[in-house]
Amino acid sequence: MANIVKTETGWKYRVSYKEAGKYKVKSKSGFPTKKQALLAASEMEDKLHRGVDINAGEANFVETFKEWYTTFRKQKKSIENDKHYDYAIKFCEKYFVGLKINDVNRTTYQKAINEFAKTHAKETTRKRHVYVRTRHLIKTN
């Protein structure tokens, strides 16, 4: 059940849920009307009931990419392939350090690629792009 509260800047919702045996709260504020806050809260509750990981976008971009690589790609193909993923990880560590998945959108990513391309060959830049995009972490909007 969502809790809707009026604040100085608008309306806020709080949804409590249980994760790994502990109660947690997800909240969002700044809604101009109570109806909008209620609608957003019901969407959040719907996601929770469907089992969607509502905290997925709050994970560290680089750490998520590394974890995915070591779990699903490392030593599955060639040594050369692993080497390119290692280069892609270094690229991410340089340009996306401290950023969450939600913070890396197409614009942020393109700026990083453009900066990288200033000092690297076209093919090298293309390979970094291909290997980073295989995980589909970049938000499309």
Automatic annotation (TrEMBL):
It comes from Listeria welshimeri serovar 6b (strain ATCC 35897 / DSM 20650 / CCUG 15529 / CIP 8149 / NCTC 11857 / SLCC 5334 / V8). Keywords: DNA-binding. It comes from the Bacteria. Residues 11-51 form the AP2-like integrase N-terminal domain. The keyword DNA-binding applies. InterPro entries: AP2-like_int_N, Integrase_recombinase_N. GO terms for molecular function: DNA binding. Signal peptide: none annotated. This is Putative phage-related integrase, N-terminal part. Gene3D superfamilies: 1.10.150.130.
